[in-house]
Design goal:
heterodimer; A: alpha/beta; TIM Barrel; nine-stranded parallel beta sheet; 9 strands; B: alpha/beta; 43% helix; globular; disordered N terminus
């Protein structure tokens, strides 16, 4: 990582969120930028901050989101139909990042259409602290990681239960911010229970990295959040939060995130 | 000639194009597929089983036919590589049989595929029926409506057709749905992708499995005409029949290679399926290639009268061959393709699929050289209702 002061500041921001939350694990809700529309998504972000979230993942809608199940896919499509643009979502990022660290979850084509350097600079300019690119696996991520390092962003890697030990070691060694551990084989979406092998998966990840380990995909209830907090440093709740935003707007999200936060106290 | 002889390693990149832009969950499966393909294609037992199926079951080698009256209309001899005569009526069976055998070799009992017009779906359903594999084909519900007979064919062959309701409910969404299924089922399932697209190693595998088209055609034209053609022409959607054809002629510098894309309402209209002719570099369905997209990097829907060319992306090797100048890519509009479909049918007694009708239209509109070879990638029975509806 470069010694640039801006870099140090952003890196510190995600690290500080993991160190200073004062609960059993950091609470990390995912919201879809521009869903149901831009202003509502700004209010949803604020509601997450009000309710005690530690980090926000802000989704940039994409036409073809391969890692997402039907609820987030549909939210992204509706955001685009309602006129969401990258500029609009970055504007939401700027607002929300005044309250807490924002990690943009964005698909590779959106990142690379301007080139990795330009995208990283725009994201950093909008106050983002990091990027998650679910269709940019480790082998393809080199140029973007360098661009993020130069712009003071953490490029957060994902690992899956299928990731081999050899890959895991490489990914863990190069990780920035935290390691996003995908709990299951499949796309985002609510599930009835956490996979039984999750503690083993998280232990394998922890063994190969110095940064915090967060778990997402399928984490759907306060009880799931409590279980994840026993083994990981961060709890990512996506589809359940997006569903609340669609069904009841910022108020429903505030209520849900409050409940999740209580489960982690 | 064998279907899968000795060739260079499995490419992950073609110049800057290709790669593996997929969720991490799939990477180990892509690694496994790459390893299996490397060993399978060097394994004489695999090669001879595939060759025997292609010959005795699917109908290879296909004839090379010197078109009688179409050559007159074009003003020079035009040879046609007759992939329309294969079982299931198109070149798609080459890839489907090879990948279904590969699935069996990997011990995967379940196969998934996507389909637009239904040709790849029918080919995969056919291969799975033959080999006793469970098969699920994803298809946009709009395509299911337009291609009802192919839906019935797949069901008759024992395949489950899974309707996809997202977006425009056509091929792009069907590919996305198949990839999502694969992310969740990767350990017991093989994804038989239908064109030379997707994450590595799929573009290379699909090319290798379609290479008999070009290898046969090259030997046949040398035998029949005593020389190589001046131009080799094939239609390009994802680009599997074209890359299988071109692969055999890439080293023949004197042979001009032409890929013909879907011009839709005209490339100037913005409603077309011609990413190689017009598109910027982008990532769709796991690989970097030429892609139709807006300024924010959102993928734009393609438009074509031909469902097989109605796709906003293209194979990564084609994008590279375009950039190096080895292959020239041009677009033919819907109206010209349909006119060529009708004219060719009357001249030759062969009803071509709408996809290669684009290549035939290009040949009529671009007189040059002394000898053309066109890959007639499929027959047009599937397109009758679409074309008759234009009357």
């Amino acid at each position: 990582m470069s010694a640039d002061p801006a870099t140090a500041a952003a890196a510190t921001r995600i690290a500080a969120a993991f160190e200073g939350h004062g609960r059993r694990a950091a609470l990390m809700p995912y919201i879809m930028g521009g869903f149901p529309d831009l202003e509502a998504s700004r209010a949803v972000g604020e509601a997450c901050a009000d309710a005690g979230a530690d980090v926000i993942e802000l989704g940039v809608p994409f036409s073809d989101p391969l890692a997402d199940g039907p609820v987030i896919h549909d939210a992204g499509s509706r955001a685009l139909a309602a006129g969401a643009t990258l500029d609009g979502v970055l504007d939401v990022c700027e607002t929300v990042s005044r309250r807490l660290p924002v990690v943009l979850m964005v698909y590779a084509n959106v990142v690379l259409s301007d080139g990795p350097e330009a995208f990283a600079a725009r994201a950093a300019g909008a106050g983002a602290a990091g990027l998650i690119v679910p269709d940019l696996p480790h082998d393809e991520a080199g140029p973007l990681r360098a661009a993020c390092d130069d712009s003071g962003l953490d490029l957060i890697p994902l690992v899956a239960p299928t990731t081999t030990a050899e890959r895991l070691a490489e990914i863990g060694a190069e990780a920035r911010g935290f390691v996003y551990t995908v709990s299951l084989r499949g796309t985002t979406g609510e599930r009835a229970a956490l996979p039984p092998e999750l503690p083993d998966v998280v232990a394998r990840v922890r063994a190969v990295t110095d940064v915090p380990v967060a778990v997402g995909f399928g984490v759907s209830t306060a009880e799931h959040a409590r279980q994840v907090a026993e083994i990981a440093d961060g709890v990512i709740v996506g589809t359940r939060v997006v569903r609340a935003a669609g069904e009841g707007g910022p108020d429903a999200v505030r209520e849900l995130v409050t409940e999740l936060a209580r489960a982690l106290d | 000639m064998t279907a899968v002889g000795t060739r260079p390693g499995v490419e992950r990149r073609f110049g800057p194009y290709g790669g593996r832009y997929v969720p991490e969950t799939l990477i180990p499966a892509l690694d496994e597929l790459e390893r299996e393909w490397l060993t399978a294609r060097e394994d004489p037992a695999f090669g001879s089983e595939l060759d025997a199926l292609l010959r005795d079951y699917a109908g290879r080698p296909t004839p090379l036919y010197l078109a009688r009256r179409f050559s007159e209309a074009a003003g020079r001899p035009v040879y046609l590589k007759r992939e329309d005569l294969l079982l299931t009526g198109a070149h798609k069976i080459n890839n489907a049989l090879g990948q279904a055998l590969l699935a069996k070799r990997m011990g995967k009992r379940r196969v998934i595929a996507e389909t637009g017009a239904g040709q790849h779906g029918v080919a995969t359903a056919t291969a799975c029926a033959l080999l006793g594999l469970e098969c699920v084909v994803y298809m946009g519900t709009e395509d299911m409506r337009r291609q009802r007979p192919n839906v019935e064919r797949m069901r008759l062959l024992g395949t489950e057709v899974a309707g996809v309701d997202a977006g425009a409910r056509t091929l792009k969404e069907a590919v996305s749905a198949a990839i999502r299924d694969w992310v969740a089922s990767v350990e017991e399932t093989h994804y038989v992708i239908g064109s030379a697209v997707g994450p590595a190693p799929f573009p290379a595998i699909v090319r290798d499995l379609n290479r008999p088209i070009g290898d046969e055609a090259r030997a046949q034209v040398l035998e029949a005409a005593g020389r190589l053609p001046d131009r080799v022409i094939a239609c390009v959607g994802g680009g599997s029949n074209a890359i299988g054809t071109f692969a055999a002629f890439l080293a023949d510098d004197e042979v001009e290679l032409v890929g013909v894309e879907a011009g839709g309402d005209g490339v100037a209209s913005g409603r077309h399926g011609a990413p190689l002719t017009t598109g910027a570099r982008g990532i769709l369905h796991g690989s970097m290639s030429a892609v139709l997209q807006d300024v924010d990097g959102q993928i734009v829907e393609a438009h074509s009268v031909s469902a097989g060319l109605d796709y906003p992306g293209s194979g990564p090797e084609h994008a590279h061959l375009r950039d190096t100048g080895r292959v020239r890519y041009e677009a033919v509009d819907d109206a010209d393709a349909v006119a060529a479909f009708r004219r060719f049918s009357k001249l030759e007694g062969i009803i071509p699929a709408l996809e290669p009708a684009h290549a035939l239209a290009w040949v009529l509109a671009n007189p040059a050289g002394e000898l053309d070879l066109v890959t007639l990638s499929g027959r047009g029975d599937k397109d009758l209702s679409e074309v008759l509806a234009l009357d």
